[in-house]
Design brief:
This protein has about 200 residues and is of the alpha/beta class. It is built from four helices and ten strands; from the N terminus they run αααββββββββββα. It has two domains: about 45 residues; about 120 residues, no CATH class. Helices cover about 20% and strands about 35% of the residues. Strands 1, 3, 5, 6, 7, 8, 9 and 10 form an eight-stranded parallel beta sheet that branches. It has a two-stranded parallel ribbon with strand order 2-4. Helix 1 packs antiparallel against helix 2. The protein is elongated and about 55 Å long.
């Protein structure tokens, strides 16, 4: 049994946050409870602090911790990360004649920041699907060709769950961040009409 007074590591805080986010996705926590507990988990100093925050939540079936670095090096075709993919701390993305989509709508987010180093060459395009709470910063991109299109920065009333920091170069590709066309709960509640094509 681990001593409750033992100091916790960054990885243990991240694991607790992931447990909280998954629990909220399952409907075990409200949005307000999630926000309050995540804030407390990030400020936790001891194992006991974290236990108190997750004691009433299941650990079984938890996905493994996300990789520290995810590398995507692709030429030609399409690539995507959608659904409940696990967001790492850092990504290295190199694309040529490839469209890559990173959809954060249902992603498992265990860290507050994701660093993406990009190398976009001719025809290498990156699309980020960003639900409320996910903010993209592309100030670190050196661009000689291609476009960068980002949504407006949300106001202080919108809590930020994930900040995506883009760095690297674009010598021929586009970077686009856009909101999802429908959020998960909107898809479940939508009632198809006579002219609805999905």
């Amino acid at each position: 049994m681990v001593d409750a007074a033992m100091r916790v590591s960054h990885r243990e805080r991240d694991q607790a946050v992931e447990i909280l986010r998954v629990a909220a996705g399952d409907g075990r926590l409200t949005g307000a409870e999630l926000e309050e507990r995540v804030e407390a988990a990030l400020a936790a100093r001891t194992v006991g602090d974290l236990r108190d925050l997750t004691a009433d939540l299941p650990w079984e079936g938890m996905p493994p911790q996300p990789a520290e670095v995810l590398r995507i090096d692709q030429r030609f075709g399409e690539g995507k990360r959608t659904g409940g993919w696990r967001v790492p701390r850092r990504m290295e993305v190199r694309l040529m004649f490839t469209d890559l989509k990173l959809d954060f709508t249902e992603a498992v987010i265990a860290h507050s920041t994701l660093e993406i180093e990009v190398d976009l060459r001719i025809g290498g395009n990156l699309t980020l699907v960003t639900p409320p709470g996910v903010v993209v910063d592309a100030d670190g991109i050196t661009k000689s060709r291609g476009e960068i299109k980002l949504p407006p920065v949300p106001g202080p009333e919108t809590p930020v769950h994930l900040r995506v920091l883009l760095t690297g170069t674009s010598t021929g590709g586009d970077i686009v961040a856009r909101p999802p066309r429908r959020l998960p709960w909107q898809r479940h509640r939508a009632k198809p009409g006579a002219g609805d094509t999905g």
